[in-house]
Write a structure and sequence with these properties.
Layout (H helix, E strand, L loop, with lengths): L3 H20 L4 H14 L22 H5 L24 H17 L5 H19 L4
Helix pairs in contact: 4-5
Amino acid sequence: MASPARAMMALLLLLSTAAVFTAQQHDYDDALRKSILFFEGQRSGRLPPGQRVRWWRDSALNDAFRDHSCWERPEDMDTPRTVYKVDTAHPGSDVAAETAAALAAASIVFREADPAYSTACITWRSMACAAARRPSA
């Protein structure tokens, strides 16, 4: 016959296991809703009036032929390629912040293999963060 302490331990183990299984149930309705929203956010062209991702606008309009008519090495391209820059006259805090994030990630990747480069990435990240925080950015 089992002792009361063993029976109590078995009961507690059973209850804690049931709690873990209950906590790990997935909300598939929420996951599906977010997946559809993600795919709506990836659309290009003229967007429908009901576009739920408010910051995404019409894109890739009337320029596909020019872009896709050129399949060659960049060194051989003779078509115009617009280049944009970020400076005090052309602010872009979003670009500076993304650059800072990429440099922070690079510093982690190279921390063991190339500590000097990792440290340089952190220095450049700090400069990019400062640029992103400027009021004119």
